[in-house]
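Sharing a chain and its predicted structure for anyone who wants a worked example. Both blocks are below, sequence first, tokens second.
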Amino acid sequence: MKLHTKPLLLLTLTACLLLFAGCHGSKEQTSFSVPEAFDTSKDYEITFWAKNDTNKTQTDIYKKAISDFQELYPNITVNIRLYTDYGKIYNDVITNIATDTTPDVCITYPDHIATYLTGQGTVVPLDDLIADQNYGLGGSELAFDSPSSDEIIPKFLDECSFDGHYYALPFMRSTEACYVNKTYVEALGYTLPETLTWDFVWEVSEAAMKKDSDGKFLINGQDVMIPFIYKSTDNMMIQMLKQKGAGYSTSDGEIDLFNDTTKELLNTIAAHAKTGAFSTFKISSYPANFLNAGQCIFAVDSTAGSTWMGTNAPLCDISDSALVDFDTEVMTIPQFDPDHPSMISQGPSICIFNKKDPQEVLASWLFTQYLLTNDVQTAYSETEGYVPVTSKAQNSDQYQDYLSRAGEDNNAHYKIKIQASRLLLDNMANTFITPVFNGSASLRDAAGQLIETVTKSVRRKQEVNDDFIKKLYSDVSSLYHLDQADSASGGKKDLGPLPGTAMLLLGSLAAAWILILIYLLLRHFCKSK
């Protein structure tokens, strides 16, 4: 009995040693190589994850793009999965990386892609695909008119490059705009400057807080007035720091957010939040709803949110009885130096996930390119205040005609929406992007959390002073794991392959146990005879 047990134990130990050797590094996908030709004799089914803001027009554009693409490539079936939030896409991708069930094509943000890359080989580097003469951008074997690499706006394409490779293609681009109730500004005795400044916005916001003897605000005769509401507080802090020339992060991932300029900005924000002149989306809700109800004067949101802004907004979320008639002005976000404006460039990009079959990856690449064709780009950009990412689409007769018809109606040619698009087109040289690295998404969240916490705290009658800011820095750094190397990846750190000496030792041990096992088995066989 003992002789039967010993070989079993030895086999188990050997297996454990081999398993340990094999599991040291993280699971890796085979690196992708561009096939010489696309195999049209086989059928491919690819999944496409996208966001559409519950906008039915956008959904219809996606469906038409898929239908038109499948007519060109009958052997490719595209299955779309729609989300209403980029954060949910991000979380689902992270979850699916662990189970090797990622989508084929995904609309996401570069900050998120940097985290996806912690799963080795999960996201396909696009350099070789972009440059391929047959199937690359503008390639000779494509069944459609793809833009060339030179026709993608360089600034937008650069946003998709990090770690020495292109990991995405831009899909749409936007920036932030300040939607202003010009009627109320002038009623308060002010004239809008050519470029908004922070001092101007703060001053007018405080002036709007005056009330009558009944406790109603003088400017609107209502019980509610929040003069300045910011939708994305992460963008607010990032852009303020950029305009001040202060630190945020380096391209190597060094975090500079917690500095004296940040403290100065937080103290200013706290002072205006204390009077009720400033609030945020997370605290008060959508800026557009307050703006359209005459309860806000300066509403900062994406240019892609322009269809919600103004008295005649096509996607207005409040009742007609709550609407207030006013003149809306679309302006750049407030600046510290109006002679040198600075604003963020943002918007979704498209990445491709690696699969075992390189032909499936190539099919995904063909569909990704198709989303950059003129018909798709112009149609999607016309739904909101996005701009196409290619010069080819921007200069097309269709898009130029669209821009020229601002104000013809309050739907397709809604004036505020087209003005928001023009704001980005006119300020391309003034836009910037933040460095992308593993953890940059967490850093962005932390930047917004600083403003959110300060604003909530003063509303709860807490004092914001040096001790408060010092503790806030520590708490936020810990909350978003910014004080831990490689912690923002959301996964296990890849230890890489075992050193050669360790592999040799494990191999020798395994060989020794195998020889012992063979000896014991032979001995047992001889005795049994």
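Comments welcome. The chain has 20 helices and 16 strands.
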